[in-house]
C-alpha cells in the first residue's frame, strides 16, 4: 500500500571550498509521509535542503520529483514544481493582510488592475478552513505572532499547491500549545497527500511525527529507516558516530583549576532561561552548549544587559552585578564577542585599528584628543599577538576573512582589558586553520588569568578546548561537567537525546 | 584606564624601533600621494570645467572671479561641514535652511532693538544650537528616521521664522554687514580673500580636526558604520547623537551670521534649499549618504565643484536654468561614481 514516491534524492554530492558538504546522499520521501531529517550542526541538513529547493545545484547525483528529474536548479523553479520551504526566516510582507500574503502574485483582480478584496478573502478563507487554520484573512500580518506567521507561510505554500513542504526547525519560536497546533496541521497535510521533510534538532518531535528518519553525519547518510526501526538513543549514537566517542584529546590543564570565580550566575531566569547556575573562574574556559533556542544566546544577551532578567543574581569579579547594558558591562570588565562579527561586532568600513580601539576611546585620548600614534601602537600590538592576517592596520575590517574578524573582536576585548569574556560561536564559519588559532588564543587568554565563557552549538569544537562544559536544554542547565569526564555522544545525548530530557 | 594585559602567545618579533624622521616623512608623503581616484574625482572634473570655460571667456580666469566664487559658496561650505559630520553618523538635518534663517532673524531683531552686536550674535547662535539640540534629543529618543524628524522641525521653523519677522526681512545687520558684506565693495582685505573665507577656513579646519582627532568624531564614524556594533562596544549612542546635532546647530548659527552679514538681511528665505544643497555637496564629495564614510576635505571638494559649476554656466553663456540641470546631473553622477561598497 506504499504511497507513490514524491521525492527521490539520488547520490547527491555537494562540495564547497574546503568541505564536502554532501557526499553520496540518497533518500526517498513518499506522498503523505513525514520524513525526519536529523544531524548535528554541520552535518549537511541545510545544504541538502538548499539542494532540494534549488538554492545550491548539486555537483553530483540528481533529485527527482514524482519521477521527473529536476534539471534546472533555481529556487523559483522548485517553487513552481511544488516544493516549498518554511523556516524562521520566511519573509512575509508585514503591512499586507493574511489573504494578500497567501495569494501574493496571484491575487484576483478586475481586469488586472484592481484587486478583488472580497474574492481574495473568500479564496483564502476556504483554503484556511480546509486546513483548519484559525486565521483571519483580513488581519494585517505585522499584528500576528510567530506561530500565526508560520501558518501564513504554510498557507501560502499550500495555495501554490506545494506537494513537498520542508519545515526547518518549525517549533523554534513556538510554545507547547502552538507546537501542538502545528503537529495537528502536519497530520492534516499528511492526510491530503502532502509530503513533509521535517528538519529538527528536537528528536522527541521527530519521533512523534515522522514515518521515516534520515540521519546525516559529516555530509553522509548514516541511516535512513522507518521510525519503528530506530530509537532515540540509537539516533543520537548515529549522529555522534561511534568512533568519536573515544579518544577525545584533552587540552593542557586537564583538570579544571580551582580558582576564584570571576563570573557567577545564581538562579538566573527570564522567559527563556530557567534557574541557570554556573560559574567561570579565573584561568578557566567554560563551554556552554545546547541546540538553537536552548538558551545559550540568551545567557550572553542577559549578561550584557540586552535581555531582562526576571530573577536570579549575578556576581562579576566578586561584586554583585545587575546588567544594564553594554556600556556598564564593559566598564565592569565584561566583554561579549557576538555571534555575527560583521552584523553586531565590527564596523565594517572602519580600519582594523579603529575597530580595536573603539571600545576604549578614553584609553587613547590625551588632553581631549585622540592619539593616533597610541592607537596604531595598540593595533600593531594585537595584530602581532593574535596574528591577525591583514594588509595593514589601516585595512577596513570588511576586507578580512571571518576568522580574522573574530580575532579583531578578541583584540577589542584585550584592548579593553576585560577580565571576563563571553564568546558566542567563535568558530562559526571560519576555516580549520583559523579555528585552531582561535582555540589557541582562547586557551592563552585563560592562561593569562581571564575567565572565558564560550557559547556554541558545536559540541565537538567546544570539547577541543574548554575546561568545563555546561549542557543547556529548554533554558535549563542539565549538566555541568569537566570536559575530561564527558564526550561528544554524551553531550549530544544531554542536549538532544533522552538523557537530558526534562521531565 | 585601560589595562593592556599582556597575553602570553607564541613569541612575535618585537615591534621595530621607530624609523628616523626622514623615513617617517617620506612614508607620510607616500601615504598622502597614494591618492584614491574615487576620492578626488570632483577635483578632476573641476579642472576640466575650469580649463574649458577659460577658453570661452577672457574674464573667467581672474582672481576676482574666483574670489567671487569663494564668497558665494562660503556659507554653503560652512553648513556642509556640519551636514557631512551628521551624514557620517548616519544622520542628517533637513532643518538647516530655516534654522539658518532663525539665527539670522534672532540676531537681526536684537540688533534692530539696539542690543549690542556680540549679544545679538550670541543669541542667534544659541537659538540655532537649541534647535540642533532639540533635533538631537528627538532623533536619539525615537526610532523614527532623522529625515522625518528634521523635516518636521524644518516646517515648524518656517512658521516660527515668518511669525517672528511678520514676513518682512530685517534689513540692517550692522556690524555683521561691515564684517562680511560691506567690505566687498572695497575689494578683499583678508589676504586678498573675502572675509567670509575666514569662518569657512575655520570651520573646515575644525571639521577636519574633529573627525580625525576627537573621540566624538570617531564615535560618529562608528555609529554611522554600524550602530549595533557601536552600541555593543559601549559607545553612548544617544549622548553622541545629541552632541552631534547640537554641534550642527552651532555651525548653522555661524552660517546664519555669515550669510545675513553678507547680504545684510535676515529673513525666513535667507537660506532656502541649503539643507538639500549641503547634503548634495557632501555626497558629491564622497561622504556616504548612509554613514560611516566621508570627511571634511572630501565634502569641501563637493562645495568647490558646486560653486565652480554654477559660475562656469554663466561664463559659458547659458541661462541660469542650466545651472540647476547641471547640478542635478552632478549629484546623480556623484552617487553612481561612488565606489561600489557594502
Summary of the model, kept short:
The complex is a heterodimer of chains A (about 500) and B (about 350). Chain A is of the alpha/beta class.
Structural features:
heterodimer; A: alpha/beta; Rossmann fold; 3 domains; B: 342 residues; ABC transporter involved in vitamin B12 uptake, BtuC; 14 helices; 70% helix; disordered N terminus
Describe the protein in words.
- The complex is a heterodimer of chains A (503) and B (342).
- Chain A has 503 residues and is of the alpha/beta class.
- Chain A has three domains: 5-245, 3-Layer(aba) Sandwich (Rossmann fold), CATH 3.40.50.300; 260-333 and 418-503, Rossmann fold, CATH 3.40.50; 343-417, no CATH class.
- In chain A, strand 9, helix 6 (176-191) and strand 10 (195-199) form a beta-alpha-beta unit.
- Chain A is globular and about 70 Å long.
- Mean pLDDT of chain A is 87; it is low at 243-256.
- Chain B is mainly alpha-helical and 342 residues long.
- Chain B has one domain (37-337): ABC transporter involved in vitamin B12 uptake, BtuC, CATH 1.10.3470.
- Chain B is built from 14 helices and no strands.
- Chain B has helices spanning 21-33, 37-56, 63-88, 96-112, 117-141, 146-165, 175-181, 197-213, 215-225, 227-232, 237-263, 274-284, 296-316, 321-337.
- In chain B, helix 3 runs antiparallel to helix 11 (237-263), helix 5 (117-141) packs antiparallel against helix 11 (237-263) and helix 7 packs across helix 11.
- The radius of gyration of chain B is 22 Å and the shape is globular.
- Residues 1-16 of chain B have low confidence and may be disordered.
- The A-B interface holds A 304, 326-327, 329-331, 336, 338, 343-350, 354, 358-363, 365, 368-370, 372, 377-378, 380-381, 384-387, 398, 412, 414-417, 440-441, 444-445, 447-450 and B 1-9, 12-13, 15, 212-215, 218-219, 221-222, 225-226, 228-236, 288, 292-293, 341-342.
Amino acid at each position: 500500500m506504499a504511497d507513490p514516491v514524491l521525492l527521490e534524492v539520488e547520490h547527491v554530492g555537494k562540495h564547497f571550498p574546503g568541505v564536502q558538504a554532501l557526499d553520496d546522499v540518497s533518500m526517498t520521501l513518499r506522498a503523505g509521509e513525514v520524513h525526519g531529517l536529523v544531524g548535528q550542526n554541520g552535518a549537511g541538513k541545510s545544504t541538502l535542503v538548499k539542494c532540494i529547493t534549488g538554492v545550491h545545484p548539486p555537483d553530483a547525483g540528481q533529485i527527482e520529483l514524482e519521477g521527473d528529474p529536476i534539471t534546472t536548479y533555481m529556487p523559483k523553479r522548485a517553487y513552481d514544481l511544488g516544493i516549498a520551504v518554511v523556516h524562521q526566516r520566511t519573509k512575509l510582507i508585514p503591512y499586507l493582510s493574511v489573504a494578500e500574503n497567501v495569494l501574493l502574485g496571484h491575487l484576483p483582480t478586475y481586469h488586472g488592475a484592481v484587486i478583488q478584496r472580497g474574492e481574495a478573502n473568500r479564496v483564502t478563507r476556504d483554503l484556511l478552513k480546509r486546513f483548519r487554520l484559525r486565521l483571519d484573512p483580513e488581519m494585517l500580518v505585522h499584528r500576528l505572532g510567530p506561530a500565526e506567521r508560520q501558518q501564513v507561510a504554510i498557507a501560502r505554500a499550500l495555495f501554490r499547491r506545494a506537494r513537498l513542504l520542508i519545515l526547518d526547525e518549525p517549533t523554534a519560536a513556538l510554545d507547547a500549545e502552538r507546537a501542538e497546533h502545528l503537529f495537528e496541521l502536519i497530520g492534516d497535510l499528511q492526510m491530503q497527500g502532502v509530503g513533509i521533510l521535517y528538519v529538527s534538532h528536537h528528536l522527541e518531535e521527530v519521533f512523534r511525527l515522522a514515518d521515516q528518519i534520515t540521519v546525516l553525519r559529516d555530509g553522509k547518510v548514516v541511516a535512513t529507516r522507518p521510525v519503528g526501526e530506530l530509537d532515540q538513543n540509537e539516533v543520537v549514537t548515529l549522529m555522534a558516530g561511534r568512533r568519536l566517542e573515544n579518544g577525545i584529546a584533552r587540552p593542557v590543564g586537564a583538570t579544571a583549576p580551582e580558582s576564584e570565580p570571576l563570573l557567577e550566575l545564581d538562579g538566573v531566569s527570564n522567559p527563556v532561561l530557567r534557574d541557570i547556575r554556573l560559574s567561570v573562574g579565573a584561568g578557566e574556559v567554560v563551554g556552554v552548549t545546547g541546540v538553537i533556542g536552548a538558551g545559550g544566546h540568551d545567557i550572553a544577551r542577559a549578561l550584557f544587559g540586552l535581555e531582562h532578567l526576571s530573577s536570579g543574581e549575578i556576581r562579576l569579579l566578586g561584586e554583585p552585578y545587575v546588567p544594564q547594558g553594554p556600556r556598564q558591562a564593559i566598564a565592569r570588565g565584561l566583554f561579549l564577542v557576538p555571534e555575527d562579527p560583521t552584523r553586531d561586532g565590527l564596523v565594517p568600513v572602519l580600519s582594523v585599528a579603529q575597530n580595536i580601539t573603539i571600545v576604549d576611546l578614553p584609553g587613547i585620548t590625551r588632553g581631549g584628543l585622540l592619539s593616533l600614534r597610541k592607537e596604531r601602537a595598540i593595533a600593531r600590538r594585537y595584530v602581532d599577538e593574535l596574528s591577525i592576517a591583514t594588509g595593514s592596520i589601516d585595512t577596513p575590517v570588511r576586507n578580512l576573512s571571518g576568522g580574522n574578524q573574530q580575532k579583531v573582536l578578541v583584540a577589542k576585548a584585550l584592548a579593553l582589558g576585560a577580565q571576563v569574556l563571553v564568546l558566542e560561536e567563535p568558530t562559526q564559519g571560519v576555516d580549520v586553520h583559523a579555528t585552531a588559532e582561535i582555540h589557541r588564543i582562547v586557551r592563552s587568554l585563560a592562561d593569562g588569568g581571564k575567565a572565558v565563557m564560550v557559547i556554541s552549538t558545536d559540541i565537538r569544537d567546544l570539547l577541543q578546548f574548554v575546561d568545563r562544559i555546561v549542557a543547556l536544554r529548554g533554558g535549563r542547565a542539565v549538566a555541568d561537567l569537566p570536559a575530561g569526564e564527558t564526550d561528544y555522544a554524551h553531550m549530544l545525548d544531554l542536549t538532544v537525546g533522552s538523557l537530558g530530557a526534562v521531565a | 584606564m585601560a589595562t593592556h594585559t599582556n597575553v602570553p602567545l607564541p613569541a612575535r618579533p618585537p615591534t621595530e624601533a621607530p624609523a628616523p624622521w626622514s623615513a617617517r616623512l617620506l612614508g607620510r608623503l607616500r601615504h598622502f600621494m597614494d591618492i584614491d581616484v574615487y576620492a578626488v574625482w570632483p577635483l578632476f572634473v573641476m579642472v576640466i570645467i575650469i580649463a574649458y570655460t577659460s577658453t570661452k571667456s577672457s574674464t573667467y580666469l581672474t582672481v576676482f572671479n574666483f574670489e567671487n566664487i569663494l564668497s558665494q559658496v562660503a556659507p554653503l561650505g560652512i553648513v556642509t561641514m556640519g551636514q557631512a559630520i551628521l551624514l557620517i553618523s548616519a544622520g542628517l538635518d533637513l532643518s538647516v535652511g530655516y534654522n539658518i534663517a532663525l539665527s539670522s532673524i534672532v540676531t537681526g531683531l536684537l540688533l534692530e532693538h539696539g542690543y549690542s552686536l556680540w549679544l545679538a550674535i550670541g543669541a542667534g547662535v544659541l537659538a540655532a544650537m537649541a534647535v540642533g539640540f532639540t533635533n538631537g534629543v528627538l532623533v536619539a529618543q525615537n526610532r523614527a528616521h532623522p529625515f522625518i524628524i528634521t523635516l518636521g522641525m524644518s516646517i515648524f521653523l518656517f512658521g516660527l521664522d515668518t511669525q517672528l519677522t511678520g514676513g518682512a526681512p530685517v534689513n540692517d545687520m550692522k556690524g555683521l554687514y561691515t564684517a562680511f558684506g560691506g567690505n566687498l565693495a572695497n575689494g578683499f582685505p583678508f589676504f586678498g580673500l573675502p572675509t567670509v573665507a575666514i569662518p569657512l577656513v575655520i570651520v573646515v579646519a575644525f571639521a577636519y580636526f574633529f573627525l580625525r582627532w576627537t573621540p566624538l568624531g570617531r564615535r560618529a564614524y562608528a555609529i554611522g558604520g554600524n550602530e549595533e556594533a557601536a552600541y555593543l562596544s559601549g559607545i553612548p549612542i544617544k549622548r553622541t547623537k545629541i552632541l552631534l546635532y547640537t554641534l550642527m546647530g552651532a555651525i548653522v548659527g555661524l552660517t546664519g551670521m555669515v550669510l545675513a552679514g553678507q547680504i545684510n538681511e535676515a529673513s525666513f528665505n535667507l537660506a532656502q534649499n541649503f539643507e538639500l544643497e549641503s547634503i548634495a555637496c557632501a555626497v558629491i564629495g564622497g561622504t556616504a549618504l548612509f554613514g560611516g564614510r566621508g570627511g571634511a576635505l572630501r565634502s569641501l571638494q563637493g562645495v568647490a565643484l558646486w560653486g565652480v559649476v554654477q559660475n562656469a554656466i554663466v561664463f559659458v553663456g547659458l541661462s541660469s536654468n542650466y545651472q540647476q540641470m547641471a547640478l542635478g546631473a552632478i549629484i546623480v553622477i556623484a552617487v553612481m561614481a561612488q565606489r561600489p561598497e557594502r
